[in-house]
Amino acid sequence: METTNQIVDLGNLLAFDCTHQLSSIPSSREELVEMCLQKGTELVQAIANDLFNLPSTEDVDGPIVKLPPPITKLPREKHLPKPKPPTKWETFAKMKGIKKHKKDKVVWDEQTGTWKRRYGYDRVNDDQDIPIIEAKSTDEPGEDPFAKRQADKKNRVDKQERNRLQNLKQAAKVGSLPSHIQLAARALPITGTQTAPEKLSKDDLGNVAGMAAAATASGGKFDKKLQGEKKPKHEQKYRKFLPVAEGKGTGSKEKEQTDRVLNKLISKNSHEVLNIGKAVTMYNLKKEKKHQNQKGRSASSTSSKLKPKGNIQKKLTNKKGSSKSNNFKTKSKRSA
Amino acid sequence: MRTLDENETTQVFEKIFKFTGNNLKNIVESPSHEGPDPEPGRYCFRLNKNRVYYVGESLVRRATNVGRQNLVSLGTCIGKFTKGGSFHLTIQSLGILAANAKHKVWLKPTSEMSFLYGNHVLKGGLGRITDSINPGDGVVVFSMSDVPLGFGIATKSTQDCRKLDPNGIVVLHQADIGEYLRMEDDL
């Protein structure tokens, strides 16, 4: 059925014919299959024609063609991510004109005279490293300056945590949080607004809880469960297997695997068979040594190059023949 | 249904190798005429619920239409994986093993029934035995009329068998065709 209304979208390697109709109702399934295949081949031919008409560059593996951008608009699976509202610090920094600078991982420590980490185990301005704090005139006599420093740090950390939660709430109001945080944040009431917190549905909560429970090295199998908690959806770790029934063009990884295993097994168990490869290499090495000795004595090289090759073939057959005949002899003796 | 991964394939092949030796290659690479396809495919091994099946490729492709819970069996079952992860050959693999066996043992008619009830093969019941059997080799047990009866593991080499007293065990029983009646539910 030749219809002229074929649209070929090379960006997606797609061709479709919107005006196709079957001219006659097929009588059997095979006929229907045949007609569909025929139409399919025409469309594939159209794609191939257009592909080969594109300008191609030569490469090691063959001509390479750059496909044009796709024409058909496929719908998005998920919605576009909403822009996050700037955090309190970001708004402040923008107002003041403060720019971000990249920080080094190691910083020069004056006290010890070495390079230390900016944070973590062996860090620069650690509170524990300070041996002596000099008393200032503003200090009260009974106060412990080390405890004061610790308390100050704790306050700073708590304040930072509160600010972080506030930023998350702001983002949740707009709706631009990642989904798992959105879920956790939905339960929190937003102070100052009249919107009631949305009720979490059982499915959503179950999904997120399952994901969290299974995010361990053994897939959540050995964790202690709370009362009433159900097993995770996928109990074991995800394992990868070869495809059950391979397609026609995918090669044969299963065949490779079985062959590999088979060869390993056979070679492991064949002690008594003559390793022909090894024998050949040993013989060649021997010949080379002899050849070198001969070179040292005589100057002629071309004749000696030709001779060993002929000899190798003859001697190999002799070797094979002799070993074979030996085996036969011993076998016949045993059975008798 | 899924393919076997490399460890599982090695386990299966090692067990079969004990019985067939290098004929294992014939088993793995023989062309199969099982399905309606015009060209012969190859045989492959598939795992379903801890049982290993020896199936032709064309059948496997058609069997993917059956759901995992609904699929009972496909091709020939050759063995099972135990809960501990080791592989045991079952009696249903007898056809494949008997066709490619390296070591064979023929039983006298008097001791056939004893073997079919699950007892080991004694020296007194031995009719014929192939040469060059090593202890620990897999052996296929035949009756005098060349009907395969089952398989087992040889305890002694062929030479030592001649020196044994008539009540010594020659072949340790692993599977026999009487299991089709005795252990119908397990198979």
Automatic annotation (TrEMBL), chain A:
GO terms for biological process: endonucleolytic cleavage in ITS1 to separate SSU-rRNA from 5.8S rRNA and LSU-rRNA from tricistronic rRNA transcript (SSU-rRNA, 5.8S rRNA, LSU-rRNA); ribosomal large subunit biogenesis. It is found in: Nucleus. Its main location: nucleus. Keywords: Nucleus, Ribosome biogenesis. GO terms for cellular component: nucleolus; preribosome, large subunit precursor. It holds the Pfam family RRS1. Residues 136-160, 216-262, 283-336 are annotated as: Disordered. InterPro entries: Ribosom_reg. Involved in ribosomal large subunit assembly. PANTHER family: RIBOSOME BIOGENESIS REGULATORY PROTEIN (PTHR17602), RIBOSOME BIOGENESIS REGULATORY PROTEIN HOMOLOG (PTHR17602:SF4). Belongs to the RRS1 family. This is Ribosome biogenesis regulatory protein. It comes from Trapa natans.
UniProtKB/TrEMBL annotation, chain B:
It holds the Pfam family pre-PUA_NIP7. One of its GO terms (biological process) is ribosome assembly. Residues 103-178 form the PUA domain. It is found in: Nucleus, Nucleolus. It comes from the Eukaryota. Required for proper 27S pre-rRNA processing and 60S ribosome subunit assembly. InterPro entries: NIP7_N (IPR040598), Nip7_N_euk (IPR055359), PUA (IPR002478), PUA-like_sf (IPR015947), PUA_sf (IPR036974), Ribosomal_synth_fac_NIP7 (IPR016686), UPF0113_PUA (IPR005155). GO terms for cellular component: nucleolus. This is 60S ribosome subunit biogenesis protein NIP7 homolog. SUPFAM superfamilies: Pre-PUA domain (SSF88802), PUA domain-like (SSF88697). Belongs to the NIP7 family. Interacts with pre-ribosome complex. GO terms for molecular function: RNA binding. Signal peptide: none annotated. Its main location: nucleus. Keywords: Nucleus, Ribosome biogenesis, RNA-binding.
